[in-house]
Amino acid sequence: MSLGLGGDGEALRGARTGEDGEKRQGRWRLLLVWFLRLLSAFWLAKGLTAWAVIFGLPGNPQPPFENRLLSYQAIIVYFAVIDLVAAVGLWLTSTWGGVLWLLAAISQMLLSFFFPRFVPMTAWLVALYIGLMAVYFLATWAAENEAE
After folding, report:
1. Disulfide-capable partner of 28 in 67, 101, 110, 143 (CB 3.0 to 4.6 Å)?
2. Is the pTM above the cut of 0.85?
């Protein structure tokens, strides 16, 4: 049993022969693809907000990005890059996209614990991230095992 979504994306595409059994088998794969695409859109917006912080927004009361602490700059640049790359990988429904998304989400939760001033996260946002990870793992598992 392989838990990968990648390679040629066969786990997500499945074979459609027009039979009722085959159509029913692709339900979890279709659900997984839609979940990954929606998650990708949200993560793309998250990455673009990090770039908005880097470039600066007019009327922002915060000091300019280049005048902030180096640790703050490193965190923002990290998320500006990893969030966009993870969003592309999620959109392509590839294994590396899911892995990068998990890395980005877990690292954001860890950084919010160690550096709450730089990466503020509320308890409901942590719960949302954990819930999204649970849905990701369950949908991936169901999509991989529906053919058996």
Report:
1. 143
2. no
For residues 17 and 20, give the distance between their C-alpha atoms in angstroms, rounded to a whole number: 9
The SS3 of residue 45 is helix
Asked whether 43 and 87 are in contact (CB, 8 A), the reply is yes
Q: Write the pLDDT tens digit of every residue in 38-50.
A: 999 999 999 999 9
The burial of 89, by beta-carbon neighbours within 10 Å (0-12 exposed, 13-18 middle, 19 or more buried), is given as buried
Instruction: Please state, for a pLDDT cut of 70, what percent of the chain lies above it.
Output: 82
Q: Using the 8-state DSSP alphabet, how is residue 64 labeled?
A: P
- For 117, counting Cβ atoms within 10 Å of its Cβ (0-12 exposed, 13-18 middle, 19+ buried), the class is exposed
Torsion angle defined by CA atoms of residues 130, 133, 139 and 141, in that order, rounded to the nearest 10 degrees? -110
Q: Are 43 and 90 in contact (CB under 8 A)?
A: yes
